[in-house]
């Protein structure tokens, strides 16, 4: 009765409160009141639609859609989702969408229900997703998020940052990234089977960066069993499921990266999916030879990953599959430049020796004039380096002791030039001076001259002093 008096009294049915919620937002729980408000001219708002999705009000959402609400209407200025930031090179996720779409929001909510598919909440959210699709929701609709810092490319000085961000345009302003619903869902895991089951779905559709769904699946646990509705006992991995739907293995993104690049160039703390790797190498072995626009082949990424994780098995697998050990990046680094950043296990030293045996030049210079020995000579101080290597095994490998003992001898056996200088006239001691005193002492023991001047007339001792490296300076105080 009170609501009838309210409506008949000429109340503004489109009024909003101080946070922007309309009458329809609050009427979701009473379908009769909601319909009465709409009969009096209440217009479904974006907030009301998202509230209906949040509260699993299927009938309310249907009423809004029947009234003409466009399911591809974007919600603007959302608060942070709190997806977290990365540590030591892990991906940093968006701290808040600038735009959101009902279908994307509903699919994320569907993933929040870990219970069985026949649970009430799961069923209702599934109905909501189906209803949005029925009324025209576009699974490839675009929306903007605030630009994020791309994940580290395993210590590569020439990070592929522009490749992960895209560029500003009239439709994508500076500081933002354009995403599509289905690609973004795949980036965070497996999209609901409802979306992948759409008839005539463009399974090879590319997003603004040229990525297909298969590219993104390869970066996010492609070996995991898909949760699709399948015959009992018929289990496909995420990768196999997309391939069964017609996904092409040979697609390349706007920056020339193929599915092997995506499979290998991933979070350094996640194992390389061996099942998917084997499938790709079996069906499309030539992908190991393709380089992206920076000249990186999958083997470059695998070698860099090996140095970081101390597991050369992926690099060895690619070499066995015909990868080109002699490939050089556009920044002038060969495989030995990349691997020389860490040689603290026998397995890594064996890979280093194998690459040199295959013809990789131990004395090749990059545009900075640096040979692989320069990369080996640069070692951060042990109190930091212990997190990742060059000493006691560190935070992520407490079960094993690591040491680069024997690495210098390996360089000597392979004919490395210890007198090499870079384009600044610096020798190995110059680049070692800011870092670990142990590495400096090793090089010093080989007879390298600590008084050698570079083009700026600086000696390694001068470099150590400028960096405040007291450990290195103490070596010469003891001598004096």
UniProtKB/TrEMBL annotation:
Pfam families in alphabetical order: Ank
Repeat among keywords: yes
InterPro entries per UniProt: Ankyrin_rpt, Ankyrin_rpt-contain_sf
Residue windows of the ANK repeats: 294-330
Keyword vocabulary terms for this entry: ANK repeat, Repeat
SMART domains: ANK
Chain intervals for the UniProt region annotation (Disordered): 73-95, 153-173
Domain of life per record: Eukaryota
Protein name: Uncharacterized protein
Lineage: Eukaryota, Fungi, Dikarya, Ascomycota, Pezizomycotina
